[in-house]
Design goal:
This protein has about 270 residues and is of the alpha/beta class. It has 2 domains: about 1-100, 60s Ribosomal Protein L30, Chain: A (2-Layer Sandwich); about 115-265, SPOUT methyltransferase, trefoil knot domain (Alpha/beta knot, 3-Layer(aba) Sandwich). It is built from 10 helices and 12 strands. Strands 8-7-6-11-9-12-10 form a 7-stranded parallel β-sheet. Helix 1 (about 10-20) crosses helix 2 (about 20-30), helix 6 (about 125-135) packs parallel to helix 7 and helix 6 (about 125-135) packs parallel to helix 10 (about 245-265). The longest helix has 22 residues, at about 245-265. The N and C termini lie far apart (about 55 Å).
C-alpha cells in the first residue's frame, strides 16, 4: 500500500480529473466509484479497480478494511482526509474511491425485459431508473445518445450499484432498435395522458418499456414504433410524475403481471 500526502500524485490527479470532467471520463474509458457500497458491488461482480484510494484514518473501519483486503496492495493509495476531500465530490467520511474501466458492452441480442431511455438528461433520474430497473429484473437498459452519461458520479451514486446488476448500453439508436424488436416482443410507450390505463393493460413477457425526456416526453419517431401507449392513472389530479417515479410504477407493474403469468403457467410473449 502506497501512502500519498500530495494531490500531485499522478493516480490522484487522474481520479480528480475523471470526477470533474465528463469529457475526460469518456475519453479515458474510466469512471470513479465513490464509497464502500459501490466499490463492494463492483468487486462482487468480479472486477478489480485500477486504483483504490482510501483515507488513512478510515482503515480501521471494517467496511473499508474489507475492500482493501480484496485489492492488490500495488493498486491501493492511502491518503490523509484533507487530500481525499480535494479529490472526491463526497466528504472524506466516505472513506474510499476507486478508478475502474467503464464497462462498454456491445449491443447484445434482445432479451425479454428492456428499459429504453430517450434523452433523459437529469443524472439523478437516470441513476434512479437504473436502480429501479435492476431491482425489477430488467435485463437490458438502452440509452439514447443524448441521455446523461450513465457512468457520471451523480448517476453512479443514485444507482447504488445497479450499474453492475443489469446490462447498460449507451448511444443506442432507439428507433431502429425498437423497429427491429417488434417482431419478437412488444414495445410500450409511457405517456402522460391519452394512453391505455396502465392497470387495465396486459403486458407481455417480452417487452420494451419506453421512458422519455423529463420535459418533452418521447419523440414522435420513437412513439411511432410503439405497439401500445400506457398512462399511469393519477386520481389526485397531478398532470404527470417525475420520470424516475413513472418508470418505477410501470416497471413494477410489469413485475406484478409477470409473476401472475408465471403462477398461472402461461406467459404471453406478445
Amino acid at each position: 500500500m502506497l501512502r500519498v500526502t500530495s494531490r500531485n500524485n499522478p493516480r490522484l490527479a487522474e481520479a480528480a480529473g475523471l470526477i470533474s470532467s465528463s469529457r475526460d471520463r469518456r475519453k479515458a474509458g474510466r469512471c470513479v466509484l465513490e464509497g464502500d457500497h459501490l466499490i463492494g458491488v463492483y468487486l462482487d461482480r468480479g472486477g478489480l479497480p485500477e486504483s483504490l484510494i482510501v483515507v488513512d484514518d478510515r482503515l480501521s473501519d471494517p467496511r473499508i478494511a474489507a475492500i482493501v483486503a480484496r485489492v492488490p496492495e500495488s493498486r491501493v493509495l492511502c491518503v490523509p482526509s484533507v487530500v481525499f476531500a480535494e479529490v472526491s465530490t463526497l466528504p472524506a467520511a466516505v472513506g474510499a474511491l476507486a478508478v475502474v474501466a467503464t464497462p462498454a458492452p456491445a449491443l447484445p441480442s434482445p432479451a425479454g425485459f428492456h428499459l429504453l431511455l430517450e434523452d433523459v438528461q437529469d443524472p439523478g433520474n437516470v441513476g434512479a431508473m437504473l436502480r429501479t430497473a435492476a431491482a425489477a429484473g430488467v435485463e437490458q437498459v438502452l440509452l439514447s445518445p443524448h441521455c446523461a452519461f450513465a457512468w457520471a458520479p451523480k448517476v453512479l451514486r443514485a444507482g447504488q450499484g445497479a450499474h453492475f446488476l443489469t446490462t447498460i448500453v449507451e448511444d443506442v439508436d432507439l428507433v431502429a432498435w425498437a423497429r427491429a424488436f417488434r417482431p419478437e416482443g412488444r414495445v410500450i410507450a409511457t405517456v402522460a395522458s391519452g394512453g391505455t390505463d396502465l392497470y387495465a393493460a396486459a403486458i407481455p413477457s417480452r417487452v420494451a418499456i419506453l421512458i422519455g425526456n423529463e420535459g418533452a416526453g418521447l419523440s414522435a419517431a420513437l412513439l411511432a414504433e410503439a405497439d401500445d401507449r400506457l398512462t399511469i392513472p393519477m386520481p389526485g389530479g397531478a398532470e404527470s410524475l417525475n420520470a424516475a417515479a413513472a418508470a418505477a410504477v410501470v416497471l413494477f407493474e410489469c413485475v406484478r403481471q409477470r409473476r401472475l403469468q408465471a403462477r398461472a403457467g402461461s406467459v404471453p410473449h406478445r
